[in-house]
Amino acid sequence: MSHGLDLDDASGAAGCGAGVEWIRRTLTDMGLLDHGGDVVLVGAELLSNAVKHGGGARHLALDRHDRFLRIGVSDHDPHPPRMAEHRPDSIGGHGLFLIDQLALRWGTRPAPGGKTVWADLPLPPP
Prior knowledge:
Order of helices and strands: EHHEEHEE
Largest sheet: 5 strands, antiparallel
Distance between the termini: 16 Å
Number of helices: 3
Helix content: 25-40%
Structural class: alpha+beta
Strand order of the largest sheet: 1-2-3-5-4
């Protein structure tokens, strides 16, 4: 089952907030909100990174598979994100580290006019 939201180059806190609210509504519709805390957190990080580093978020997708949920955010920058060395004492710079820790796997793929950064998160057992 696939769900998507066009964000019209959302930028700033308002765009990220609208995306996070959509994730919560979609998880509710799927009956997964109680198990979706990590999905919301990862989605917020992906949206934030698209705004900060990718020229704005273009599209947000949430796809349900048998054993995982895939969340993806498309932006305008074709270059993949780079995870720097994690420094726990730094202010900021923890987004990709958190995604890497919470997701089963994550990556990027080319998208028209930019890229999509995606992450797969486990579904609870049936």
